[in-house]
Specification:
0% strand; little secondary structure; globular; 119 residues
């Protein structure tokens, strides 16, 4: 497993990047563009994804407790089985395309993606 805890990936373009099963606790992805990124099973509690574009990212079974998705785009992302307690959702584009601010300040309950499949 890659240990990338507290590393910075600020404003980087990392489309299709493979972080599967990496340790990303406290990592900073602010403003990054990571379309179709593979975050399956990552440990990313307290990671900062603010203003990142994470369209189509695979966060299945990821630990995202207390992660910050302020202003991020998660359109089409898959979050099935992810741990989301304490996650920050402010002006976040949810996987189903809705905005967290219009959903009571959360994307939980709006994790459906295209074609009605559950993320």
């Amino acid at each position: 497993r890659m240990n990338l805890m507290e590393r910075e990936f600020v404003f980087l373009r990392l489309n299709d990047a493979d972080f599967a099963h990496a340790r990303l606790r406290g990592a900073v992805f602010s403003g990054a563009r990571i379309h179709d990124g593979k975050f399956f099973g990552v440990r990313a509690a307290t990671a900062n994804f603010s203003h990142a574009c994470l369209k189509g990212a695979d966060f299945r079974k990821a630990d995202l407790r207390e992660a910050d998705f302020t202003g991020a785009s998660l359109r089409g992302a898959r979050l099935w089985g992810a741990k989301l307690s304490g996650t920050v959702w402010k002006n976040t584009v949810c996987p189903d395309g809705t905005n967290s601010d219009a959903n009571g300040g959360t994307c939980e309950g709006h994790l459906r993606i295209y074609g009605g499949r559950e993320s």
